[in-house]
Specification:
Blueprint lengths: L19 E5 L5 E2 L16 E5 L35 E3 L1 H7 L3 E6 L9 H15 L3 E5 L3 H12 L3 E7 L5 H9 L3 E5 L3 H13 L4 E2 L5 H22 L5 E5 L4 H16 L9 E7 L4 H7 L26 H10 L3 E5 L1 H12 L7 H15 L8 E6 L7 H7 L10 H9 L1
Parallel strand pairs: 5-13, 6-7, 6-9, 7-8, 10-11, 10-13, 11-12
Antiparallel strand pairs: 1-2, 1-3, 4-5
Helix pairs in contact: 2-3, 2-6, 3-4, 6-7, 7-9, 10-11
The protein binds ligand F0G.
Length: about 425
């Protein structure tokens, strides 16, 4: 299987250009990387991956941010707003409370637009530029639209975003709006938005920048590369496990690809690959269902609901890339309730780390798996928090303390405090 950690590498095909090509993960067909707009395989409609003639090891990386890793990317540089280089926080109280050897929080909310999507867009929008397109589009639960709008405007391109009406957090809509995207509010859920935007892209109306686009996932690989480098610096080993929230499973697929490439280049030993562990909300958990049933295909959920609107997704389009990642690394997938998500959001906030609900799913999932004994006490774990608290101010306010009205004089304030 081509997505195995121990897959043989193939010789570069004739279509390779600048050491890169696109390859179908289903039938193995190969395509030139930048000669035409294409998102899936021409022959079988399978998902495409970017493949490289040379794969880097850690010594090949220098500089900061996403482009530090350009030796692992299809371009030397991109449309940048200084994305990447996000903090990896120590959380000693939570570490003890959860009961693992080491716990670190990789806070992707510290990217320029407040989510990990920036890492994909810096590459994806640069490829769009290379292809000469002028209109970019995505379906989104919010963060992708904010990132697309920002990077598209920086590149001087038009942007179009399709959002599920009434189900996108306020901060995200505000970002898409101010960065100048045309915002279409669709009377349907995210999966319906993605169906439509794929049709628009197929008709040549716009260039698709959802995570179906293989170039976006290349940028997102850098999360995995940063985590490994930082943990090697911190405790001289790569983490045993990375826990992350799952929606379309693009990030899961991207981290897996980063690790596969390091194994293939000889930079990472097969037995050291971190266990990829996905977390979904109970009301939107098709990946968890597939992992639990050991199914090869994921069943599309038509009805989905969760307070973590970023991952309110019933049809994880990257499942064919992500399921092998979870299985081959010895990871798993777990679902958590909205209450568990909010509790985890408060826990992280109590360590000074402000995240949106979907992000807190990672910690909630870790707690559950630790309680079940799936995660063991000697494990070194990294939880990925994917988006900033300010993305969803309403959820933060609902989870936090209520403001208390007081009179505009000190005596009255003191009196209130003594109550
Ligand atoms: N966390 C946040 C904050 C997200 O915004 C998303 C996806 C995910 C996790 C899931 O990542 O899809 O790679 O498994 N948000 C997309 C969007 C769907 O439109 O912003 P995934």
């Amino acid at each position: 299987m081509s997505l195995s950690l121990s897959a043989e590498r193939r010789e570069p095909p004739a279509e390779a250009a600048d050491g890169a090509w696109l390859e179908c993960i289903e039938c193995g067909d190969t395509f030139a990387p930048f000669d035409a707009v294409r998102y899936t395989c021409d022959d079988c409609d399978g998902l495409l991956e970017v493949r490289y003639t040379d794969l880097p090891s850690f010594e090949d990386f220098s500089g900061d941010g996403v482009w530090r890793y350009n030796a692992a990317l299809p371009l030397e540089s991109g449309v940048t707003i200084q994305e990447g280089s996000t903090p990896l926080y120590r959380v000693p109280r939570l570490e003890e409370d959860v009961g693992v050897e080491a716990l670190r929080i990789k806070h992707e909310g510290m990217n320029p637009t407040g989510s990990f999507k920036d890492r994909g867009m810096t590459v994806g929008v640069a490829v769009a530029h290379e292809l000469g397109v002028d209109r970019l589009a995505c379906a989104s639960t919010g963060n992708t639209s904010a990132a697309l709008a920002a990077y598209g405007s920086r590149a001087g391109m038009q942007t179009l975003v399709l959002l599920p009406a009434g189900k996108v957090a306020a901060g995200k809509v505000a970002q898409a709006s101010l960065h100048g995207a045309r915002i279409l509010e669709v009377d349907g859920n995210f999966d319906a938005c993605l169906d439509i935007v794929q049709d628009l892209a197929a008709r040549g109306e716009a260039y698709l920048l959802n995570s179906l686009n293989p170039f976006r996932l290349e940028g997102q690989k850098t999360i995995g590369l940063e985590i490994l480098e930082a943990c090697l610096d911190d405790y001289d080993a790569v983490p045993d496990r990375i826990v992350l929230p799952v929606g379309n499973a693009g990030n899961t697929a991207a981290l897996y690809k980063a690790f596969r490439e390091l194994v293939q280049s000889g930079a990472l030993a097969l037995e050291d690959v971190p266990k990829l562990t996905g977390v979904q909300a109970e009301g939107a958990a098709p990946m968890v269902e597939a992992v639990e049933n050991d199914a090869d295909e994921v069943r599309r959920w038509d009805e989905v609901e969760t307070r973590a609107t970023a991952i309110r997704i019933g049809n994880p389009v990257n499942a064919p890339k992500a399921l092998p990642g979870i299985r081959e690394t010895g990871g798993t997938a777990v679902s958590v309730t909205d209450e568990e998500i909010t509790d985890a959001q408060r826990d992280l906030a109590g360590e000074g780390i402000g995240v949106e609900p979907a992000s807190a799913a990672s910690l909630a999932g870790l707690r559950k798996l630790r309680a079940e004994g799936v995660v063991e006490s000697d494990e070194r774990v990294v939880c990925l928090t994917t988006g900033h608290l300010l993305k969803d101010p309403d959820a933060a306010a609902a989870a936090g303390n209520d403001p208390e009205p007081v009179p505009a004089e000190t005596e009255g304030v003191l009196e209130h405090l003594q109550r």
